[in-house]
Amino acid sequence: MRIGLIGTQNSHSSAYGKAFNVDKRLPGAAITLVWGETPECARERAAESSIPTVVDDPSAMLGQIDALIIDTRDGANHLAFAEPFLDSGIPIFIDKPLATDPVKAAAFLDKAAACGARVASHSMVPLQQSFHKFVTAQQALAPLRYLGLSMPAALDSEYSGAFFYVVHAVECLCTLLNRLPLRARIERFAGSNLATLDYPLGPLVTINLQEGNYSYHIMAVGEQDTLAMRLDYDEDPYLTSIQLICDFFTGVAIPASHERLLMPVQILTALEISKISGGWVEVCQ
């Protein structure tokens, strides 16, 4: 299997190169073509991971690969990178976020389905063992009255603002609740920012948006008890994510539904609008 890699600025791209080309996690598969945001980044990734070919334009990969990984920092560019490959029907993994526009993302997924191209996207935070332990433990609290997440943010990031880091918190939230809130808002304070999400049937959800603090914490409150945990990374934080990508490429893992893939984009879009307006924003249903 020949894998194409688009994007080399993230540490994730280094992990992908190591997994497929150095550790050979998927026998018979390797990243054979790479494109980077800068020629220097592309050459560096190619050298460290023994990727044989650096291309000047992602279109040079058309017809030359059997699977694609898109790993650029700005989610606003992801669909444009992926769309030319839909007609080939190859599996496409898009590192989070899938996109930054829910309407365009829905149209993209519809086209992918029509072309027979499978699309997957995920954050690696909900794949960590600590998060799985939280998911199991919080079931004893049902029904939940409150969920509180305290996770990294970079609201004014050049990479589409809230989409760049808040996606991790939103992916955790969607994994836990698997449904959309009615509305969302961001309140900005001196030294701190807070996102609130209104789920009509509960629970109340807040996300402490930590600027410059890269720790992950989560709390659940039920009728009788409270659970609070720090979410630590696994010893190899990429291991489960990369195994899931391998299973997706080989057809062993079924990608998430289009509804679930769109959910984080819909929530993050509302938060990004609220960041500017300062008020409640309805989440696109």
Number of structural domains: 2
**What's the architecture of the largest domain, going by CATH?**
3-Layer(aba) Sandwich
Radius of gyration: 19 Å
Q: What is the level 1 CATH name of the largest domain?
A: Alpha Beta
Q: Supply the number of helical segments.
A: 8
For the biggest sheet, the summary is:
7 strands, mixed
What is the beta-strand fraction? 15-25%
CATH H level of the largest domain: which superfamily?
NAD(P)-binding Rossmann-like Domain
In terms of quaternary structure, the protein is single chain
Strand order of the largest sheet: 12-11-7-10-9-8-13
- Poorly predicted runs are none
> Structural class per helix/strand content?
alpha/beta
Can you give a write-up of this model?
It is a single chain. This protein has helices spanning 11-22, 39-49, 78-82, 102-115, 129-138, 166-177, 239-250, 258-277; strands at residues 2-6, 30-35, 53-54, 67-70, 92-94, 119-120, 146-153, 183-189, 192-198, 204-211, 217-221, 226-230, 281-282. With 285 residues, the protein is of the alpha/beta class. The protein has two domains: 2-123 and 237-253, Rossmann fold, CATH 3.40.50; 125-235 and 266-282, Dihydrodipicolinate Reductase, domain 2, CATH 3.30.360.10. A seven-stranded mixed sheet has the order 12-11-7-10-9-8-13, covered by helices on one side. Strands 3-2-1-4-5-6 form a six-stranded parallel sheet. β1, α1 (11-22) and β2 form a beta-alpha-beta unit. The two termini are 38 Å apart. 40% of the residues are buried. The model has no long low-confidence stretch (mean pLDDT 96).
